[in-house]
Structures are given as C-alpha cells and as structure tokens.
C-alpha cells in the first residue's frame, strides 16, 4: 500500500532529473539511444529516471484504485 510520501519522493526525483539535464525524459531517451558512445553516468541516470517514471505511474494507479474503493464502500 502506498502513501503520499512515496509518490512525492518519486515526483521530486523526476524533477531533479529534469533540472539536471534541462530536457524531458523523452528527449533524454532519444539522446541516449542515438549516442554512438556510451557514457556510464548518463546510462545509469537513464535507467533510474525510467524506473522513477514507472514507480510514479504505479503509485498514481494505486492511489486512484484506493480512491475508487473508498467511493464504492460509502
């Protein structure tokens, strides 16, 4: 079960990546995939950034599901 802190943490992580690279995840992903040379720190950030996006989506879906269940039980 999630709490709002978990969702907030993922949102803050995503914000830090956008600030660090000054581009969106999609733009960063294109850069990583089109690069001829692998830069480990960028690849590592790409994997973490992608994981944060997935976790944020998961937490949002769980939060929505919990809200739906609360409405049904009322």
- Element-level helix/strand string: HHH
Which class best fits the helix and strand makeup?
A: mainly alpha
Could you estimate the helical fraction of the residues in percent? over 70%
Q: How would you classify the quaternary structure?
A: single chain
Strand content: under 5%
Radius of gyration: 16 Å
What ranges have pLDDT less than 50 throughout 5 or more consecutive residues?
none
- The coarse silhouette is elongated
Overall pLDDT score: 91
Q: How far from one another are the termini?
A: 20 Å
The main pleated sheet reads as: none
Number of helices: 3
Q: Tell me the number of structural domains.
A: 1
- Counted beta strands: 0
Question: What is the compact description of this entry?
Answer:
The protein is an all-alpha fold and 74 residues long. It has helices at residues 4-21, 25-34, 40-73.
